[in-house]
Amino acid sequence: MLGPKLKYRYDHYTWPEMKDVIARQPVCILPIGSVEDHGRHLPLDVDNFLIGEMCEDVAKRIPDEALLLPGIPYGFEDHHMSFPGTITIRAEHLEAFVLDITLSLAHHGFKKILIADGHGSNMPILDMAARKTIIQSDALCACFIWPSLISGLIKETRESPFPGGMAHACELETSVYLYLNERAVQMENAEKEIGFHKSKYYWHDLGGGPPVRMMEWWSRMSQSGVIGDPTLATKEKGRIWYDATVTSLIEFIREFRAFEILPKTDLHG
Ligand SMILES: [Zn+2]
């Protein structure tokens, strides 16, 4: 650690100080992303970078109510392995790893744990880890993927078609990346590609999930790595979507922190 203690950082406290931190019961935020292909125009760090920036911003703004854990930089990517550079963590490893972290937090007495996801295919695994945390501890554990927090706003402001314009390395992710660090985006290499099967019931889109879910090998759906239309991305849309996500997340953390944990009852008798 260089410089002073940052109040919002879990790992900047000493262990004796941690007792006071536990007593004030902040919501523990655990970011998780991925290292994976994001088209020819974006680096492999998109999911880590976006969710990391959002969570740090949130924790910085409400340091008494939120506590930021070190993030998990890898996710479940088996279906992306056709693309050079992608790193995958097997589903069962990831679930066990996340659960070890959340149960450690619960063991020390933290009651509210929020897993903040930047990568879609982590979600079924995180959902299961969150459920198991609740079953196996006294804590509440929840998870989300960030675009879900602003789905209403996305619907009103997107320019790409629904469904499909915002699935991966798309109008949404590219815009937010442009806002946060435009120098790392190669917009001249951005290309539109929406290659999944056409159906009324099945699609991919971060602005709203389908009734029927299926994940194919990514290279069957995309040769560039993109699903969506990144050519429509702008820094200004990125700013609007980023700010709204941060605001929504602060709002939810406050609600979540106030949730009363009721005793569970055995109704056999
Ligand atoms: Zn992504």
Write structural notes for this entry:
The chain has 269 residues and is an alpha/beta fold. The protein has one domain (10-258): 3-Layer(aba) Sandwich (Rossmann fold). 39% of the residues lie in helices and 10% in strands. It has 8 helices and 6 strands, in the order H-E-H-E-H-E-H-E-H-E-H-H-E-H. It has helices spanning 15-24, 46-61, 91-108, 123-136, 151-157, 171-181, 218-221, 235-258, and strands at residues 27-32, 66-68, 112-117, 140-145, 166-168, 227-228. The strands form 2 sheets. Strands 2-1-3-4 form a 4-stranded parallel sheet, with helices on both faces. Strands 5-6 form a two-stranded antiparallel ribbon. Strand 1, helix 2 (46-61) and strand 2 form a beta-alpha-beta unit. The chain is globular, with a radius of gyration of 19 Å. Zinc ion is lined by residues 38, 46-47, 119, 168, 173.
